[in-house]
């Protein structure tokens, strides 16, 4: 049993952190919960994540995922 991250996991984590640092909105106030503005904000954020390949990581590439194998097998 391996209880520490391997090099591949550390590299993946570093890429994600770098992307988040560059893309998480920091200048705007959060929209009011339940408002239309919040729905639009969250949809835009999900689209940004998807476009960058950070959603559906284990989904097959032909369905918009990255095709990353699950490590829980």
Rg is: 16 Å
Total DSSP E strands:
0
Q: How can the largest sheet be summarized? A: none
Q: Report low-confidence residues grouped into runs of 5 or more.
A: none
Q: What spatial form do the alpha-carbon principal axes imply?
A: extended
Query: How many alpha or pi helices?
Result: 2
Mean of the pLDDT scores? 87
Query: Whole-Å distance between the termini?
Result: 13 Å
Order of helices and strands: HH
The proportion of residues forming helix, as a percent range, comes to 40-55%
**How large a portion of the residues is in β-strands, by DSSP E?**
under 5%
Structural class: mainly alpha
What would you say this structure looks like, in words?
The structure is a single chain. The chain is mainly alpha-helical and 73 residues long. It has a domain at 33-73. Helix content is 45%, strand content 0%. The protein has two helices and no strands. It has helices spanning 7-23, 36-51. The two termini are 13 Å apart. The relative contact order is 0.09. The model has no long low-confidence stretch (mean pLDDT 87).
